[in-house]
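Convert to structure. Protein one:
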Amino acid sequence: MLIQENSALLKSLITQLSVVEARSSFSLTGDMDDNLLGLRDLLDLEMITGEFRYGLIADPLGCLLTSAEGILLTRRGSLLSN
């Protein structure tokens, strides 16, 4: 994924998430696979918390997510949500 596409994806995910209202990966708009890649990036950056399930398939950055529940923005993530 190109840097500009990844940046747009992360911004899109951040705008859909909240500090107080937990979301599921299934309730996010956009392509499910792209969203899961973006959520993994946000988790690695400590911008979200929640319950994350990983599959057996991995890429160079690690195991791929299969789903996420109870996703909330962290304080760090909330700084970029405005």
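Protein two, convert as well:
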Amino acid sequence: MRLYSASKPPSPINSDWIHWTNKSHFKNIEADSNQISALLFITRNKEIEIIYKPTPIINDANDQFEGIMGNMFDDGSTPAIIKIDGDDIGACTTIQVFPDLPEAFRPEFALLANSVKDTEWQEAKKELALIVIPTMAPLPYGTDIKSTELDDDFIDEMQKLSPEHGFWAKMMVDAHEQYASDYDTSQVVKNLSATTSSTRRDPCNAASKGFREATIALSGPIVLATRPRNKHEREQKIIKDFFYRNPTPARPVPAEEDEDDGDDAPEIPVQATTAPIQGATATFNPTAANSSAEFYSQLLETLKTINQTAPAQQKIVVESREHEESVDLAKLQTSMLKLFYVNCDIDWDEGTVKNVTLATFSKGFKDLLGRTATVQEAQFANLLNTIFKTQPDDDDDELANPLERLMSLSVFPKNSTKRISTPASNAPTSNQT
């Protein structure tokens, strides 16, 4: 397996990346960097995503940074190019208790009273600090992140990479919680941004390094990936230099089809044998036939003898590969559709699914599941579109929909649940869910 994360020797990343608060830092990432193999980011559902071989998207007309493009998977034979818009790249913020911060990442002093004025933070009993971190974390070569969610296991795994990675992961947990709860963190940012530096001290020093030049991302700590489609062909070509599907093995060319190139390969002798047929006594020798008529006459007599003396032959049914694939597809679709109708006990806290049982289908619905793939496609078009084509906020943002991105059934609008329970005029029985 070709892994991009293993395509170059591991090399430590400069620790200053924790202060990449301006999108210009990401603009300057080399498409084939010797240090950065991937960028890690957190989605709206607090899921860990990684974009491999990050390649900046630059508009040649105005030299503007438009985003980052890369591959969703580490495997070189699994191309799945995604794009992160430039508005999601930059910095996000979180309010932390000043004394609890590690000294290496602690601002010069705590937030002043004017910085938290008219916000929920002004009632805090402890000194506070504003932490500014990049929305994405670079990963060195040789890194294999196992975690899939923003939790303590992820923090521990990132801590093993470096103190900066561990601090970033811990701050991301609070950044997501504060962003979702709207704790007036953005107002603190506005208050600090409005201050001016004095000869004695700059109020912005109550924030971590890089606040003054920070580019605050529009979606805070949330980063969304989309498909580039046919855009940015130059950047896509760079990524496809490594990520491409393995070629289909070449079909061996028979000797008679091979062109005479003057370098003939040695021939392999093939010995022909004839299997004896029980009860058949007549034989024929085509080379001994004096004429075509005599040969075919002898052949017919031999066939008659075989048919009369040989036991009942097994019938040979020849079907096209297209037909076989159609049958397999119908069976696969039937199995997939049945997965929509199950009963189970789900414990979201423990993350377990137990007592999974298939529903009992009515006769009409069974008949519909047993139809061919073509008929099922027409019958279930509206049903599947209802499930997998729920309208996201942005029509181009297909990967924002977890049903599109993860093929997960964890999110269903009420109207979709109602429709999927009655996909045909002969609806399933009442115990289906």
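The CA atoms of residues 48 and 148 lie 5 Å apart. The first helix runs from residue 23 to 27.
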